[in-house]
């Protein structure tokens, strides 16, 4: 009986962790303590069991923050029944609470926080920006920096992302001519979209989406550097 209870408790705890992927739950007791440890925190005050498009968008932001150690994404579940958990905390920041409660607040202790899309890496996004804005000779140096940085990465997911940044840079070094960068990025993203629409595993879908986000990191600066085409 005790073993069954322990197994059930472990399963529920693990289930909660999966649901909370990328963000943490805060309450009246730990709110101030945890916020004080991070430079920037995005907090969502919501009903105890949230759902819907806004919540899904919040989860995407939370997933995107996993490679940013100074940026915390958190959620406060507020109950308007029973012991009315965290209602006092929510009232600090809102005068009116209702059943459709959804409040997003960002707390800053510093500025300049990078928030990348899923699959993107901060150092490589900066390299992508410098790469697109640099002359061809400088790009080879930046490519070498990206390759060296790739070698230093240990985790599998980050290594896969780094590899795609490097492969994209290598391809952009090869091509030349006005508009060719934008054309390549547009064509490559369309190819990945095509693969995404085929029958592929959930893991492969996540990988394809990450690659598309990385292409967007390059395309953003192609556009801002004077490119006319958009992804």
UniProtKB/TrEMBL annotation:
CDD domains xref list: ERp29c
Task: Indicate the secretion signal residues.
Answer: 1-20
Q: Can you cite a GO biological process for this protein?
A: protein secretion
Q: Does the keyword Ligase apply?
A: no
Q: Which Pfam families match?
A: ERp29 (PF07749), ERp29_N (PF07912)
Keywords attached to this entry: Endoplasmic reticulum, Membrane, Signal, Transmembrane, Transmembrane helix
Q: Where is the Endoplasmic reticulum resident protein 29 C-terminal domain?
A: 119-218
- Domain ERp29 N-terminal intervals: 20-107
Keyword Endoplasmic reticulum among UniProt keywords: yes
Membrane-crossing residue ranges in chain numbering: 101-121
- Which SUPFAM superfamilies does the entry link to? ERP29 C domain-like (SSF47933), Thioredoxin-like (SSF52833)
The cross-references to InterPro entries, in alphabetical order and at most eight, read: ERp29, ERp29_C, ERp29_C_sf, ERp29_N, Thioredoxin-like_sf
Q: Tell me a GO cellular component.
A: endoplasmic reticulum lumen
PANTHER family listed in its UniProt record:
ENDOPLASMIC RETICULUM PROTEIN ERP29, ENDOPLASMIC RETICULUM RESIDENT PROTEIN 29
Q: What is this protein called?
A: Endoplasmic reticulum resident protein 29
- Organism, by scientific name, is Diaphorina citri (Asian citrus psyllid)
Upper lineage is: Eukaryota, Metazoa, Ecdysozoa, Arthropoda, Hexapoda
């Amino acid at each position: 009986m005790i073993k069954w209870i322990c197994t059930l408790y472990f399963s529920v705890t693990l289930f909660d962790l999966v649901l909370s992927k990328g963000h943490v739950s805060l309450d009246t007791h730990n709110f101030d303590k945890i916020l004080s440890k991070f430079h920037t925190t995005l907090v969502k005050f919501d009903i105890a069991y949230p759902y819907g498009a806004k919540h899904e968008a919040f989860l995407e932001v939370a997933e995107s923050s996993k490679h940013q150690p100074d940026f915390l994404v958190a959620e406060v579940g507020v109950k308007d029944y029973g012991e009315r958990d965290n209602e006092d905390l929510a009232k600090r920041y809102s005068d009116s609470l209702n059943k459709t409660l959804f409040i997003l607040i960002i707390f800053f202790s510093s500025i300049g926080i990078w928030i990348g899309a899923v699959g993107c890496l901060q150092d490589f996004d900066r390299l992508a920006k410098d790469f697109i804005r640099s002359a061809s000779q400088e790009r080879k140096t930046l490519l070498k920096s990206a390759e060296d940085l790739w070698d230093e990465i240990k985790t599998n997911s980050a290594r896969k992302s780094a590899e795609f940044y490097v492969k994209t840079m290598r391809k952009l070094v090869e091509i030349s001519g006005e508009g060719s960068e934008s054309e390549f990025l547009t064509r490559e993203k369309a190819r990945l979209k095509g693969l995404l629409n085929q029958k592929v595993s959930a893991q492969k879908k996540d990988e394809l989406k990450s690659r598309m986000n990385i292409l967007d990191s390059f395309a953003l600066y192609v556009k801002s550097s004077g490119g006319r085409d958009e992804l």
